[in-house]
Every structure is written in C-alpha cells, then in structure tokens.
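Exercise 3.2. Students should predict the tertiary structure of the chain below and write it as structure tokens, then compare their answer with the key that follows.

Predict this chain's 3D structure.
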Amino acid sequence: MHIVFAAAECAPWAKTGGMADVVSSLPKALAKLGHRTSVFIPYYRQVAKAIPNPAVVLPSVTIPFPTYNRFVRILDGSVAKGVQTYFVDCAELFDRENFYGTPSGGYPDNAERFGLFCRAVIEASKIIGVPDVFHVHDWQASMVPVMLRSVYYFDPVLRHVPAVLTIHNAGFQGWFPPETMEKLLLPWNMYTPNKLEHYNTVDFLKGGIAYSDAITTVSRKYVEEIQTAEFGNGLDSVLRQRSGDLFGILNGIDYEEWNPATDPHIAAHYTAENLAGKKECRRDLLHAYGFEGVGDETAIIGVVSRFATQKGFDFIVDIMDRLVKEDMVMVVLGTGEEYYERVLVEIANRHPDKLRAQIKFDDVMAHKIEAGADIFLMPSRYEPGGLGQIHSLKYGTIPVVRATGGLDDTIDEQPSGAGNGFKFWGYDSSALLDALQRALGTFRNKVEWKTMMERGMAQDFSWDKPAGEYVRVYERVIENRN
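Answer key:
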C-alpha cells in the first residue's frame, strides 16, 4: 500500500522531540515491509540550510484563502532507504528563526501556517500519487483528516481515503480563535463541542480526533492515561467516545543510529557479550564533563532532556541536596525553561564535584551520555512514549523512571535486580530519591548490575513489530472506508 505521512518534524532536518524520530524511522520500517511511503514536512529555514537547492517537483500549488490565494512549491527531499521525502515551500510562512514560535509564545499565524501545510499535502498528493491512507502526526497535521471530511468530501479521488492520527503528546493541541474556521474555509457546522470547538477555540487536535478513521498513541499505557481527566488535557471525554478506534503502539528505535556496537559518536564500541568498551566510554564521558578522580565504585547518573516540570525537573531540583550525599555524580544535557536552566547551573556551582550541566542540545554528547553513564534518569510527570529509556537499555545504562506512559510499558522493576530498571509512582520527589537509592544500592552489587545490563541490551525495541501493528491499523481503516 501507499502511505503518506504528514508531520511538522522529521529527523534529521527538523527536530524538537520524539515525533521527528518516529516520522523518520517508521516509514523506513514500512518500506522494508514492501510498502510505498512518502513524507511531507514544511521547508523551514533550518531545512533550507541543510538542503539549499532541492529539485522542484511541483512549481506552483494553489492554496485558497478567503481574500487571496497562496502559492506553494513542492520540493524533492530525495529517496532514502525506500522513503520519498517532500518539502512544502512557502517562504513567508516557514522561513523563520524557529519552527513554532518565539520564547514569548507561538507565532500568531500558526493556524494559517499549518492549515496551509495540510491542504498542500492533500493537493500535492492528488498530483504526485493518491495514497491508500494518510498518516498524520499531532495537531500540526490534524487538519488533513478535517479537510478530507469537509472541503474534500465530494472529491471522487479523495473521499474514500482514510486518515490515521498519531498523538505524540496530548498536551499540545493547537488552540486558535473561532475566526480560524473562516480563514481555513471550513464550514461553521464543524465548530461544535463534539467536533472542533473547545472552550471557545478551534482545537486542531480535537478536530483530528473527531475526523480521523483511527487514532494511535505512542504506548499502550498512554492510551489508558489520555482517557482520564489527569492526562487527557480536556480531550479525555472525546477520546473515550473514540475508544474503539484508539490504539497504543509503542515507539521503536533505529538501531542503525542507536547501537553501542557501531555508534560512531562514542569512544569505544561494546556489546552485551563484551562490555569492556563501556568502561572507556565512561572515562570519555567524565573527561567531557571535566570530572577528575571519579572511581569505578561511583555511579554516573545521566540526564538528557528538555528542562521542564513535565520532565520531572522539579523532582530533580528538590532532591539534589540529599542526592549529593550519595556516592554518585550527575551529568546533565539539554535546554528548556529558564528557571531550571538557572537552577541547574547554581547547583553545579555549589556542588562541582557532584553535578555538571551543559545547557545546550548536542546529539553527539547525548550518545556519549547513553554509552558512558551507569544510570539514566527520566522522572517525567507524564511521558507518552519516551525514547531515552529505550536507548539506555540498548547501551547497558539502567533507567530510573516514573511509572507513566511508555516508561511504565518498557521498564520492569523486580526484586534483586531481576528486571531491567527502576520505577517510582506518585508525584513525590522522595519516591524518586528512593528509586535512585535502590538503583545505587544494586549498582554496588556488580553481579546483579551486570545481569541487568545484559538483560536490557538483549531486548528488542526495533521498529519491526510496531511497523506490523501500524500496517494492521491501516488495513482496518482502508477496509472500513471501502
């Protein structure tokens, strides 16, 4: 079958989070199964820097607006590993410093930007090749199913093409003023509480949920969570109504990129059968962060994350004065909320022998942390899927996580180190500290620790199984539309 992906991000060209990795890796896995896959993303300024002069596939596609038309180009991102990538080029909307907005908030014309993107994907697909199914991701692409079931309802080519929506994070929905309906030429009868209207706004993600043929999320646990008031972000009742069309498919990872046996970014390669290289990676990580005199008995705790309360950084900050008393050092990498950036620097200045922080995003350093750390910390308040903990398992770096979303699905704590990591429950920083202390205690038992490392490294979180699950969802919605 032919699957067209529409998303705001795709690694390596445009990435702020896990969605970009999924949109990069899942189409490759589907192509390996013999399916035709195409991916559409906007031609952002950052993409243009990476690919400055791509071939033009469609020189002019008309996108209607109420008082004027916009004209976009479809550019060729080339074929790699069986996946055809296309870029939607509209310089006045996408040639900007950031993908979605500035530190003060989202761009005021984001509804127009991503409404145009969705319509351009549909129009381009009519010319380049109508798919068997559209697979759209998060609020930025949610207007594809909305438009298919409204402005394209009578189009004989498209009216029977289904759409699958993947929700990577229900906390981001795309809320815009009511006049957005007119701006995107959508009929007002869709502006109702059971369709697009949400507390006097046009909610892009809600529209995608209402009009998609199936909805998937990135873990089994998150399917349960988003149907509750605690995690549904106001959409739990809508999602419960669609529960029969809601599927949890755990994210996979690309082992061509994340594999300690072949990783070009780390100091030495290693496998579960020969872990000697991990010791060299450990020394390299300590050197990269300027630590000296750290013995083998001292655990290295690694953190690679966006600094935000959602990621549990309030827990981390709260326990640091107690954690520094343990036999450990912590290395932190990332950027995020200014408060946490400042506090982490302050803690590092107070305890330079215990904590070092690099306030930046550095993909190479992220690989070094996965390979060189002993413990990987992810205390997220909620985590729909999570990739860091899966990377860590492959690198023999034991995860300590909060039992939520994909973290709960992938990490199993058992007595005497019989699981693959450590978990804590509840919104209590002391529970996090307790989980870390359990991990540090097990770390001192080298036999148990090595067994845990080997167990995690042997697990298979490749895209092979998830890709097959997605194919079954596609087949289901295609059959239901015919």
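Discussion points: The mean pLDDT is 95. Residues 285 and 372 are 6 Å apart (CA to CA).
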